[in-house]
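Thread: Newbie trying to understand structure tokens

Hi all, I'm a second-year student working on a class project, and my supervisor (Dr. K.) asked me to get a predicted structure for one chain before our next meeting. I've only ever worked with sequences, so writing a 3D structure as a token string is new to me. If someone could post the tokens and maybe explain what I'm looking at, I'd be very grateful. Here's the chain:
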Amino acid sequence: MPDAHCSKCCPTKPPKPEVPAPWPWSALVWLAIICTVGTSLYALVMWAASSLF
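---
Reply by user tm_fold:
Sure, no problem. This is what the structure looks like when written as tokens:
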């Protein structure tokens, strides 16, 4: 904590909150690919299960 006298003659700005860095495009592309493959596999399994029974 700064000294009370010093804060009166030399005001200090509060630190800015850290903003998280945005994800790179390659990570978003891989996430989209993984979600697409997962959804496709789920649909394929559901279709195969409904065809068998």
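A couple of things are worth pointing out once you decode it. The two ends are 71 Å apart (CA to CA). The CA atoms of residues 35 and 45 lie 15 Å apart. Feel free to ask follow-ups in this thread.
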